[in-house]
Amino acid sequence: MRSREERRGWVSFLPEPSSVMVDALGLVLEAPEFLTGQGHPDAPVRVTVPVIQPGIRTDRLLVALDEVGGITLVGCPNEKDPSSAVLIAGDVLSLSGRLWRMPVEEFLALIEQSLGKGVAEAIHERAMPDWSDEKLLSGIAASLAAGRFPVVLLAAASDHSAREAFEYLNGFRLSVRLVGVAVYTCSGIEIAVPVQLGAEVPTVPRPAAVESSRPDVSVKTSTGTFRPTQAQSGVARPAPARSGPAAHPTPAQPTERQPEPTEKPTPVREPAGPVPAPGSKPGVMAGKRPPPKR
């Protein structure tokens, strides 16, 4: 919230939607609390700094830190530059890998380089009077050790490049949110409210692998691997064991003989010529034998 006018006394406050354009990057740098609940919902965000590191190609990628050490990566694409969201998406993946298991001292040095002061001092200036840095360092260490930092993309609803970057990062199973900025005005006061444009996609757990007791009867062929079904392979699953004590043993039932498959008779080819009678030789006329010569 910010005031454009100076007034005294009580006034009615009935905010209405406004078409005022707000620079998301300047908003979260000046008021980090705008990001509260978008990344880590545990505590208010108190510090946001741009990332200054070799290999980071954009200056619109920020690191946000809340009161208990929760780390969130924040991208603010420039809608007028279609390549801005693409660069941010690539730098988010690169920075996530660099921050994972980074020593706490090195992370504090990275943040304080942009702050120009200590992290605890910067948070204390914006936090409630009873805030203590007792859980800050342990929270930062836990966030760095876990990795997979939440990602927030602040963009307009009409920014198609930002939505493509949001869908791209969701493919890496990261917790990504696409957030817009809605502005309301009343009596010279402007209120910026976060609007959800796209929430993170829940990941579907992979099914656990189940070991089968059935033997592998796959057959490799020239066209691939053939795995017959239970009916084709002839391997039957064992019957489930019956629970409870048996009073008398069940007599064995006689095994029925399976009918043997009948083979089809082989067709007999008929000779082309006449069939000789019994007792005749090929080439000799059939009939009575001639009497022996004396």
Summarize the structure.
This protein has 294 residues and is an alpha+beta fold. It has helices at residues 24-30, 82-99, 104-115, 119-126, 136-146, 160-170, 230-233; strands at residues 2-3, 16-18, 45-50, 61-66, 71-75, 151-154, 176-186, 189-198, 219-221, 224-226. It is elongated, with a radius of gyration of 41 Å.
Order of helices and strands: EEHEEEHHHHEHEEEEH
How much of the polypeptide forms β-strand, as a percent range? Answer: 15-25%
Counted beta strands: 10
Shape: elongated
For the largest beta-sheet, the strand count, sense and barrel status come to: 8 strands, mixed
Class inferred from helices and paired strands: alpha+beta
Radius of gyration using CA atoms only: 41 Å
Helical residue percent band: 10-25%
C-alpha termini separation? 145 Å
* Average pLDDT rating: 79
Uncertain ranges:
202-223, 228-236, 243-249
* Number of discrete helical segments: 7
Helix and strand topology:
Blueprint (H helix, E strand, L loop, with lengths): L1 E2 L12 E3 L5 H7 L14 E6 L10 E6 L4 E5 L6 H18 L4 H12 L3 H8 L9 H11 L4 E4 L5 H11 L5 E11 L2 E10 L20 E3 L2 E3 L3 H4 L61
Parallel strand pairs: 5-6, 6-7
Antiparallel strand pairs: 1-8, 2-7, 3-4, 4-5, 7-8, 9-10
Helix pairs in contact: 2-6
Can you characterise this structure?
The protein is of the alpha+beta class and 294 residues long. It has a domain at 13-198. Helices cover 24% and strands 18% of the residues. It has seven helices and ten strands. It has helices at residues 24-30, 82-99, 104-115, 119-126, 136-146, 160-170, 230-233; strands spanning 2-3, 16-18, 45-50, 61-66, 71-75, 151-154, 176-186, 189-198, 219-221, 224-226. The strands form two sheets. Strands 1, 2, 3, 4, 5, 6, 7 and 8 form an eight-stranded mixed sheet that branches. Strands 9-10 form a two-stranded antiparallel sheet. Helix 2 (82-99) runs parallel beside helix 6 (160-170). The longest helix is centred in the N-terminal third of the chain and has 18 residues, at 82-99. The model is unreliable at 202-223, 228-236 and 243-249 (pLDDT under 50).
